[in-house]
Amino acid sequence: EAGTELGGRVARESKLPGLAEWGRVRDWRATQLAKLSNVKIYFDRLLDAEQVKGFGADCVALATGALWRTDGVGRWHRKAIPGSDRAHVLTPEDIMAGVEPVGAVVVFDDDHYYMGGVIAEKLRRDGHEVTLVTPNSEVSSWAHKTVEQGRIQQRLRELEVRLETSTALIEILDGHVQLICTNSSQSRELAATSVVMVTSR
Description:
Elements: H1 8-13, H2 23-34, H3 49-54, E1 89-90, H4 92-96, E2 105-109, H5 115-125, E3 130-133, H6 149-158, E4 162-164, E5 167-173, E6 176-181, E7 187-191, E8 194-198
Parallel strand pairs: 1-8, 2-3, 2-8, 3-4
Antiparallel strand pairs: 5-6, 6-7
Helix pairs in contact: 5-6
């Protein structure tokens, strides 16, 4: 285990608003592993190929996970969004690691599940001015499949997160972003000093 606790992304995400119950999955699995005499867990270890070979295992499974992209490539964009390499462009991993955005924040949600809404909720609860931008006609549309979409949208409205639906982020500049309507192709500027990309991994 590269980190100091088991659970990977489940451990990190369970600290986000509304996801605390996910910690039970990690806890149950850790408890079951601790009961097995043929399982040894080494924490805070990064291994290279030679060290892995040193275990003499017949089979090796690498569970390294995936990171959110910072370049904006996802469902709407097939190429990097201009300006996505700027220092004020963050990912959900950055937010979960405690990186604090500066000023007004745009969350660009091209994932359409729970993460965009949860990140927007966390940042708003932390006192930021937050706008959630999504190319879809509603926020977190995939969450209809898990019967969460209505609750996600309701929480964001109660927290006064600005929702920009049917809108795509097309460029990131200093102090503002360029948006485009996915229906009319009309473009406009929106003030933003930080951007969080929730696109693809």
